[in-house]
Design brief:
The chain is about 55% helix and about 0% strand. The protein is mainly α. Helix 1 packs across helix 2 and helix 1 packs across helix 3.
Length: about 70
């Protein structure tokens, strides 16, 4: 796992890269708050844009997490 990123953040990035819903696994009501906070965190870090698309920095994180 990439240091500094949670499992949920990395999962969301992988889902976005694959063209899927970032949080398709959010099924319980309590999960949605965590999902929204994770998206906000990824935006603040510059890993996704305001359209929830990967930025170059986000692609870099995925590349380094795959290594």
């Amino acid at each position: 796992m990439n240091a500094g990123f949670s499992e949920m953040e990395l999962s969301a990035l992988h889902n976005i890269a694959a063209g899927r819903d970032p949080f398709g696994e959010c099924h319980m009501r309590g999960d949605y708050g965590k999902c929204l906070l994770t998206l906000a965190s990824l935006r603040r870090a510059g890993l996704i844009d305001h359209h929830d698309k990967l930025t170059d920095a986000g692609r870099g994180v995925l590349t380094s997490s795959a290594a």
